[in-house]
## 1
Amino acid sequence: MILDFLNWQSLILLSVLVGLELVLGIDNILVISLVVEPLPFHLRQRARRLGLLVALLLRILFISGVLSLVRLTTPCIGYFSVRDLFLLTGGMFLMAKGVFELYDMLFHKKKEEVKHHIGKNALTAAVIQIMMLDLLFSIDSVITAVGLTRHLTIIIVAVVLSFLAVLCYVGPLGEFILKYPSLKILALTFLVLIGANLILQGLRYHFPEEGIYIAIVFAVVVELLQMLYQKNHDS
C-alpha cells in the first residue's frame, strides 16, 4: 500500500484529489455554518468535529465498497438511480432550509435567550445533519475519484488530508460568516442555489458547477471589499 506513493504519478494524483475535495468542500462550509448556528458558541465546534468525524468514517467505508458505486448510477426506481434520489432529497432539503432561514432572518427578530435552553438533542440533531449532508456532498467527489484511480489507498489518504484541512478552517470561517448578517444572507442565498443545482443533477440536467463556485467567490470578494470600505470610512 505504501508503495503506491513512491512515484510522482501517485503524488500528483493525490494532490489533484485533495484539491478536488477542498474545492467541493466550499458547499460543506456554508452548510455546516448554518446548521450549527442555533447552538451556543461552546457547542458549535463540538458539533462540527463530531459530525465531520463520523462522516469521515462513513465516507471511508463508502469508498471501501468501491464496487458498489456502480449501482449508485443504475436506475432503481423508474429512471432514477440511488444517486439521483440522494441528490433530489438533499437538494430539496437545502432549498427548504435556505428559504426558511432567509425568511426567518429577514422578517423575525432572533431571541438570543432561547439558545440557553438548547441541549443535547439539538447537538445530536446538528451532528446528524452535518454527517448526512457531508455524505451527500461526497457522492460526486467519490465517484469522480474512483473514475481517476482504483487505488483505494490514494483516495482514502486524499479524503483524510482534505478532512484535516477542512477541520482547521471550518470553525474560524464559519464563525466569521455568522458574525456578519450580510455574509449569512449571502451564504443562505447560495445554499438555495446549491440545493437547486443538486435537484437539477438528480433530474439528469447538468449545470456547470464551476459557474456556481465562481459566483460564490466573486460575491464574497465584493462583500468583503464593501465591509472593508465601511470599516475604513466609519472609523
Note: Residues 2-206 form one domain.
## 2
Amino acid sequence: MPARILAISTATPPVAYSQRELFDTIFSKWYADIPDAEKLFMNTTVQQRYTSWTPEQLTSRVLSTAERIELWDESTMAMGRRLLSDIFQQVDKSRIGSFVMATCTGYVGPSPELRLAGEFGLSAGLRRTFIGHMGCYAAFNVMKTALDSVHARPDELVLANASEVCTVHLRPEATREQVVTHALFGDAAASLVLGSVDEPGDGPIILRTRTETVYETTEMMTWTITDTGFRMTLSPYVPFILGEKIGPLIEALCAEEGIAVGDIRWWGIHPGGPKIVDFIGNEMGLSDAQLRASRHVLANYGNCSSATILLVLEEIMKTDRPAPGDYGVLTGFGPGLTMESTLIRF
C-alpha cells in the first residue's frame, strides 16, 4: 500500500569544517607517510562536512569506543531534538502511532528514539523499532518498516528517522583505503512522517520498493567494531559493481508499477562517493541536472551514511520543486553489497 510523506526535516551538528581545513589540521599529519594522501582526500569532491567534535578534540588522543559512543549519543539526541521540534510544527504529534529509527554509528539502551519520545510526550503505547548496523541503505529499511505500519494502521502516522554521527569513528590508521574513507563521511540526521495516501497534503507518495543483495561481494564493504571505534573498508571495485547492477534493479522496480525507466524525471542517488554517482549516472543516461542533488549533498555534507538519501530527497523537494505527478527514484547501497530502491510520485 502506498503512503504519503507528510513532513520532512534534516539536522546537522552546529559546525562545518572545510575539506581543506580538515586535511591541513588533522589528516596531513595522520597520513604524512602516504605520498598521494592529499590528492586522494581532495578528489572526493567533498567541500565541507559537519562534525560532532572539533579538530582539536580529534587530535588530542585516540579515544576508546566507549568514549566515542558517548559522543555519538550526545550528538544524536541534540539533532533529534531539533528534528522533532520542527516535525511537530508540521504534523499533530498525538497521531504518531509508531516511531522507527536507524543508525549504524552507535548504540545505547534505552535507545535514542525511546528517550526522544518521552521528552516530546508521545504516547506510552507508541510502537518503536530500532534498526542498527545496516549501513548507508538503512533509511530504506526505515521507510519500508514505516510503510508496513501505515498499511496495518492507516489511521495513524509514523515517525521515521535516520541519525548518523560518522565522524566520531575517525581513526589515525595510515592506509590509502582509510584516507578515502575518512575523506568522505560527515554527520547528519533526518526525519520523515508517513501517513495514508488519503491524508491531505502534497508530499511525495511512496509507490514501490525493491531490494537486491549481491551476496558474492560481501567483503567489498564492511563496518566492524574495534577497541578504538568502528572501522570501515571500501573496495575501489564497488562503483563498478553498482554500475553493472543498477539498470536491472530500476527496470524491475518500474515494471512493478507499469512505467518505463524513461518516465523517471527525478533521481536521488546515495552519494557514497563521486565515482558511484558518476557510474550510475552514466549507466542510466542521466543528465547533470538529474545528478545535481546527489552531488550537492556530497559536496556540502559528505556521505552521512543512512541519513544521506533523505538529505538528497529534501534537496530535490526544496530546490528542484518537482511538478505534481512527476516520478522519482531513490536508490542507496551498503554492506552486502545491498542495493535498495524506492519509486515515488510527487
Note: The CA atoms of residues 30 and 172 lie 6 Å apart.
## 3
Amino acid sequence: MTVPKALPLEILWSSDSAVAVSKPAGLATIPGRGETDSVLEQLGRQLALPSSGQDDPRIRVVHRLDKDTSGVLLFATTRTAQQHFSHQFQNNTIEKEYLALVRGRPRERDGVVDAPLAPHPTSPRRMAVVKHGGRPARTQWRVEETYRGLALVRCFPRTGKTHQIRVHLLHAGIPLAIDPLYSSPAPIFLSQFKRDYRPTRGEKERPLISRLTLHAERLRFVALDGSRVEIVAPPPKDLRAVLNQLRRHARA
C-alpha cells in the first residue's frame, strides 16, 4: 500500500524535547532498504529539523512500529530525551496498548502469552516462539468485541520484542486477520459478512481494509520533566470502516 506523502503527519503531543505522531500504515518508521520515505524523515521536514547528525535539536528515534502498523509513535528531539525514553522502553516501564483484529473466536475473554521469541530457523524475516533460548516476551490480551469469525482484541505487550504481538497472537490461536508474514494476506471485504451485499453495478468491490490489522492505540510514560503522559491515537479510517461494518452486520 502507498501513503500520500503530501499529507502532514498528525502530531498528537509535543514538548520541548519530544514529539508523538499518529503513524500511518504503509510508511516505515526509519529509512531502510527499498524505502523512499519514512516517518523519521517526513517529521524532520515537517518540523524543519534534521533527522540525522549529532547536533540538537533533531528528530531522534526511541522506538519503532512495523511499516504496516498504524498508531502512536514517539520521537525525541534531544539526546537527553532520547536516552530518557529509550531507558523506559528498554526496561518495559512504558505502558502500551494495541488494538488487533484477529481471526477466530477466542475461547477465553482474556489471557496471557508468556513465551520467548527468537528468529525463525528457516525464515529470516520472521520470529518464532521457542522452547529453549530466545528472549523473554510477555503479552496480555483482552477481548473487546466478537463477530462471526473475527474478534477485536486489546493487547498489552509487557515486553517489546520484534513482531511480538503478531507472533504471540498466532501462538494463542487467534492470528491477525491480515498479516502477510504470519497468517493471511487476503483483504477483508464487506461482501464476506454482509448477507444481502450487492456490488455497485459496473464497479469492482473495494476492500474495507487490506493491511496489517494492528493499531498502536495508546502510550503512557514519564516525560523528561517527571510528569506522567498518556497519548492516544484514534483508529485510522480503514480500521474504523471494517469495525463499523462488522458491528452492523457480523455481531457474534
Note: The longest helix spans residues 237-249.
## 4
Amino acid sequence: MAKLFHGFRGLLQSDASSVYDILERGPPGLDVDELMLVGCWAHCRRCFFEAAICKYAIGVEGVTRIGAMYHQDNKLKKLPPVQRKAMRQQSVSPLIDLFFEWARDAMRLAPTRTHAARALGYALNQEQELRRVLLDGRLPMDDTRSERALRKVVVGRKNWMFYGSDTHAEAAAAWFTIIASCRLHKIDPEVYLDELVRVLP
C-alpha cells in the first residue's frame, strides 16, 4: 500500500481499514507529514444502520444524526469549494460536534459487545478522520463514489478467471482501460469503440 501511494501528498479519503494506517503514520523513521487520512461518513452510518436493524435505539439515533449532516451538506454541493468550506463551518460542523458529544455519552451507557457499541466505537475511533471533511470544500462526506467504481471489479473478477489464457486477460484489460478512459473524459464508450474498430484495420 505504501509503495502504491509513494510520493502522494494531500488528503486521502478512505474507510477505517487498518491497511491505510501506514500511509498516514508510516513505519518508524519514515516522514509521512504530507499525507492525511479523511474518514468516510457512509461507513460510519453503515455501522449505526446495522445496529438499527437489530433494534438498538442508539442505531436509529446515529442514523438520524448522520442523515441531518448529509441533509445540510447536500444544500452546499453546488457552491465553490472555498464557499462550501465556510458554509460547512456554519451548518455541518455544529452537527458533527453534537454527534460526537452524543456518541461519547451513549458509549458510557451502551452494553458492550453489541452492534450499538461497535457503531459508537467506530465513530469515536475515527473522530479525527471524520472531522477532516471540514478541511476542504472539495471533499465529499464519504468515499462511496470510489467504492462504486471498485464494485465492478469485485463483481466481475469471478468471470475474469475464465479468460482462457494470460494473453486473453491482457487483451481484456486493454479494453477495460479504454472504456474507463472514455468514461473519465465523458465520451460514449460504445461510439468510441465503434470508431476505433472501424479505423484500426
Note: Strands lie at 10-13, 35-38.
